[in-house]
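Sequence design from tokenized structure. All designs in this work follow the same two-part layout: the structure record, then the generated sequence. An example of the structure record is given first.
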């Protein structure tokens, strides 16, 4: 509209100028062959037309077409895989400034997606490669006919562990994908939240008994309206981490408090804790502070838990210090049924 308005205004001005010149030529007979220099007005009109045309062309090229050309070049670079390019947003035309801003935001998002894709490919390839290589190695060992029954049983159990690791990774990826596609269309139903947490504790009993951990529980009867299937996954991930990173003979505290606005669940341990850098990134997909992979995991559990809590319009916070343990505090607001 800005360009159209300027063009229309220029045409009106040019029309006015030519009408005025035509009026002068007609009334004063400036183009009469009998008058000396009678062609001068014609030359003046031609010169004025060239000046106006050149001015309009320069304006259109500088203010309208050049920004479009810059955008075309930038988009060509993005098409070639350059997601670092940014356009100068400080432009004289508001529409061009908004267009450049939208382009810069788009490139930043594409750059984030590309980074996530690269991390995803490298992490997934590593996570799948390790158990697959393990299973392959034990399959080759089982081909040895001189193995004892005990050795065969050990190898089979280790192969089973590898398949469990692959299944766990695949399940978490599918659950994350399901959450991202499903959005806020979760089915909320009323259920006993305290009983659900107890079920998870019983399910993980072999793990915490093996490490001789002491559980401090405070789980009063609590009815909550939420998605029972996904919330079970939250408690499973958080408690499994608390067990995994606790010291032998340590303590784990699990408290449930019902408030007017909702419920608060705190899960804390006295284990190895985390640095501030790790604390700031633990909810990122595929992030693992233990790069050596000594601890089992794939960096998806906490990202999944955070997304589930947010789909319940809640919050999850972590407070941790190295060698002092970690505390996860979750708030789940009261949500109307089937909201």
């Amino acid at each position: 509209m800005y360009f159209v308005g300027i063009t229309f205004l220029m045409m009106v001005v040019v029309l006015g100028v030519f009408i005025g010149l035509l009026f002068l030529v007609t009334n004063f007979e400036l183009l009469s062959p009998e008058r000396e220099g009678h062609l001068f007005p014609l030359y003046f009109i031609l010169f004025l037309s060239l000046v106006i045309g050149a001015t309009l062309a320069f304006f259109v090229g500088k203010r309208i077409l050049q920004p479009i050309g810059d955008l075309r070049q930038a988009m060509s670079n993005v098409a070639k895989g350059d997601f670092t390019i940014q356009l100068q947003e400080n432009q004289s035309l508001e529409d061009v400034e908004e267009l450049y801003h939208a382009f810069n935001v788009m490139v930043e998002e594409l750059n984030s997606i590309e980074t996530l894709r690269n991390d995803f490919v490298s992490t997934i390839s590593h996570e799948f490669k390790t158990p697959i290589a393990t299973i392959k190695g034990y399959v080759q060992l089982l081909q040895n006919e001189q193995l004892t029954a005990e050795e065969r049983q050990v190898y089979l159990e280790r192969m089973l562990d590898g398949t469990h690791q692959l299944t766990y990774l695949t399940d978490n990826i599918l659950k994350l994908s399901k959450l991202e596609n499903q959005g806020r269309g979760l089915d909320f139903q009323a259920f006993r939240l305290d009983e659900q947490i107890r079920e998870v504790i019983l399910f993980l009993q072999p793990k915490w008994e093996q490490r001789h951990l002491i559980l401090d529980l405070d789980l009063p009867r609590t009815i909550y309206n939420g998605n029972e299937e996904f919330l079970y996954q939250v408690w499973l991930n958080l408690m499994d981490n608390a067990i995994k990173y606790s010291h032998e003979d340590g303590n784990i505290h699990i408290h449930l408090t019902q408030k007017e606005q909702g419920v608060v669940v705190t899960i804390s341990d006295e284990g190895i804790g985390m640095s501030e850098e790790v604390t700031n990134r633990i909810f990122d997909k595929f992030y693992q502070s233990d790069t050596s992979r000594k601890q089992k995991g794939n960096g998806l559990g906490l990202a999944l838990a955070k997304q589930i809590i947010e789909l319940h319009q809640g919050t999850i916070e972590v407070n941790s210090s190295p060698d002092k343990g970690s505390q996860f505090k979750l708030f789940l607001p009261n949500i109307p049924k089937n909201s």
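Residues 189-333 form a domain with the Heat Shock Protein 90 fold (CATH 3.30.565.10). We note this feature because it recurs in several other targets discussed in the main text.
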